[in-house]
């Protein structure tokens, strides 16, 4: 239950932040700077929320962690996740550009409805 609650909470935070930060990029919303900023900000904050909610539900109650341990774990995990995002985001951006160019994810893609 702790994992599910933390995942759902952080997924909502991540989606809202990613969308909100993306709206700030009017000039080049599909450029790498916009992509990286959206990804880094939303990932860092949402991962902190995920780790904090999980540690407050599970580690605090079942393992006797202190609040300091919960916050330290949340911050450490968020930093590690951000570092992974920085390393792998150029690959993700290249894939997203390729998919956009190929029209993958557009309104006219997907399985055919005819038999």
Description:
With 115 residues, this protein is mainly α. Helices cover 77% and strands 0% of the residues. The chain has helices at residues 2-23, 32-62, 67-102. It is elongated. The mean pLDDT is 89.
Distance between the termini: 42 Å
Helix content: over 70%
Low-confidence stretches: none
Overall average residue pLDDT = 89
Structural class designation: mainly alpha
Question: H/E element string?
Answer: HHH
Strand content: under 5%
Number of helices: 3
Largest sheet features: none
Number of strands: 0
Q: What Rg is obtained from the alpha carbons, in whole angstroms?
A: 18 Å
Approximate shape: elongated
Question: What labels would you give this structure?
Answer:
3 helices, single chain, mainly alpha, 115 residues
Secondary structure layout plus pairing:
Blueprint: H1 2-23, H2 32-62, H3 67-102
Helix pairs in contact: 1-2, 2-3
Quick overview of this protein structure:
Helix content is 77%, strand content 0%. With 115 residues, the chain is mainly alpha-helical.
